[in-house]
Amino acid sequence: MSIGTFFAGLFNSLVRVFKAFIAEAIPIAEQIIIAQLKNTAYFAVNALVNSDLTNEQKRSKAFEQIKSYSIGKGIDAKDSIINLVVELTLQKIKNGVK
What we know:
The protein is 82% helix and 0% strand.
């Protein structure tokens, strides 16, 4: 085994470890964002759940409130994460969980 082959193997191993670390970090980062938004989401969704608005209007208003909160707090929340938080919160409210 040459020294070049050794370092190439070492480099490839480090790249695999780094990729695995990033793959684990992204879902954890999303979980952190969800945790940061859950209280705001609860109040936004709960305030709208019994309103006379259509379901789409309720989702839209809750989304806007949560998005505004996240921007104000410097939380970089993707729209898909905010939509997920709205849906999870709605299910909690419907099932009587606070």
